[in-house]
């Protein structure tokens, strides 16, 4: 059966960080046929809520807000100053999300991206418990703005804390706050999940956002992804959220280095966006 979903694309496909200049992408994103623009918040000070809101309205687009969690934004760090930095940053993200009329802030906000180490079970438990207690605070802060948080699994090369949906659902159970929900990213799932359909079913009604690209971060439909399994899983949970393409431009060196994209994945980023959406619309309608 056809999926009743909206389609989005991350501005990371073209640029970083998101700022006023990125608003020039919105007419193109709308022209390609997207419903939603995914806005990564690297520096909240660069995002003027009223300007972004007007640009979204002018182009008939909705927004999804995703966080970016570098080394200073780490809720599992032993130094509480890192927790305060994370809380302050996420509060800014909540302000942006509420101002743009979105319903959640998404991302792997439990730890700094790239924190991937072989540690003892005892140390893992300490950091897990820190993530749980700090994410309870994050949930309570989100609640003040009427928002949820969507927590994301990452592959083993980017975090040692949460790699699978099963682990994520355990974290959410331990947090035990109604605002704690799920975002899944097909790139990470293709590395870590033995069965993506089962993972999506496990997330169930907690799944409120889905990011996709190919197994190599390329254009959907050009790689080895088991799109049939994704479809069955999403149908099984009656998913009606956004399916958003997330990949990155090699032209922004800091971003490309962070996600290990050493060369262009496609001849054109615009082509990536157009062809990826064409594939996804056909796949969702089948």
Automatic annotation (TrEMBL):
One of its GO terms (molecular function) is isomerase activity. Residues 28-282 form the Xylose isomerase-like TIM barrel domain. It comes from the Bacteria. InterPro entries: IolE/XylAMocC-like (IPR050312), Xyl_isomerase-like_sf (IPR036237), Xyl_isomerase-like_TIM-brl (IPR013022). Keywords: Isomerase. It holds the Pfam family AP_endonuc_2. PANTHER family: HYDROXYPYRUVATE ISOMERASE, INOSOSE DEHYDRATASE. This is Sugar phosphate isomerase/epimerase. It comes from Algoriphagus halophytocola.
